[in-house]
Inverse folding.
């Protein structure tokens, strides 16, 4: 029998309306919705990929950026191997807010690979230059990429780079084998946190 593939838990965080749900939608469904409603609580999608010859199932948790849902977020950090930290290149406030997200990450789960994503590069009214994003990423040891969920530029790359880095860091996932037996549902829904904490086998 084929050995079970890896399931990795990824988390999308960042201020409201930076495009977290749109990036996830683009990545999992290849689509873009110009008038997406804000996420309520948390959403969840699964995507299977083969990377570096390895079958991986990604469980991607999309958190709400709105302040009123922020108290929900800490429990979702648990068991994540990768975090996509998103800002909007046309809104400086979402860039200056990154330090707060990093502090929260450090507090709840410091053992993750982090990818900084500057989204909405298709828009003309840029407030954050690429080199500022790059500098911030270097300073905090984050992977970095700019994307547009609208045109799809960089989106696939962002997730792939993050997963490759996680695969290159076995200490993040090989200790979690005790979670075997937990099954993932192939669905997108507002979920409770108990569905799949960190690492689940492909069935
Ligand atoms: N032009 C452009 N618009 C985008 C892009 N990504 C997202 N948007 C739009 O920005 C708005 C907010 O996007 P969402 O994906 O809902 O943002 P979010 O970060 O998930 O927001 P919360 O759920 O409130 O945390 C929507 O109207 C999207 O259509 C992009 O790359 N380019």
């Amino acid at each position: 029998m084929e050995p079970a593939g890896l399931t990795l838990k990824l988390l999308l965080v960042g201020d409201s309306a930076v495009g977290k749900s749109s990036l996830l939608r683009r990545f999992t469904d290849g689509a873009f919705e110009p008038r997406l409603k804000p996420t309520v609580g948390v959403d969840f999608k699964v995507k299977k990929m083969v990377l570096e010859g390895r079958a991986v199932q990604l469980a991607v948790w999309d958190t709400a950026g709105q302040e009123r849902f922020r108290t929900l977020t800490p429990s979702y950090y648990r068991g994540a191997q990768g975090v996509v930290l998103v800002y909007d290149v046309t809104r400086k406030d979402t860039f200056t807010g990154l330090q707060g997200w990093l502090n929260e990450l450090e507090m709840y789960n410091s053992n993750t690979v982090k990818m900084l994503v500057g989204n909405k590069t298709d828009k003309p009214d840029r407030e954050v230059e690429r080199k500022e994003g790059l500098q911030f990423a270097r300073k905090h040891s984050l992977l970095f990429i700019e994307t547009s969920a609208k045109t799809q530029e960089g989106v696939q790359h962002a997730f792939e780079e993050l997963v490759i880095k996680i695969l290159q860091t076995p200490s993040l996932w090989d200790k979690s084998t005790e979670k075997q037996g937990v099954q993932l549902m192939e669905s997108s829904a507002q979920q409770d946190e108990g569905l799949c904490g960190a690492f689940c086998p492909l069935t």
Q: What stands out?
A: The domain at 6-195 is CATH 3.40.50.300 (Rossmann fold). The chain has one domain: 6-195. The chain has a mean pLDDT of 83. Helices lie at 20-29, 73-77, 92-96, 98-108, 130-139, 155-167.
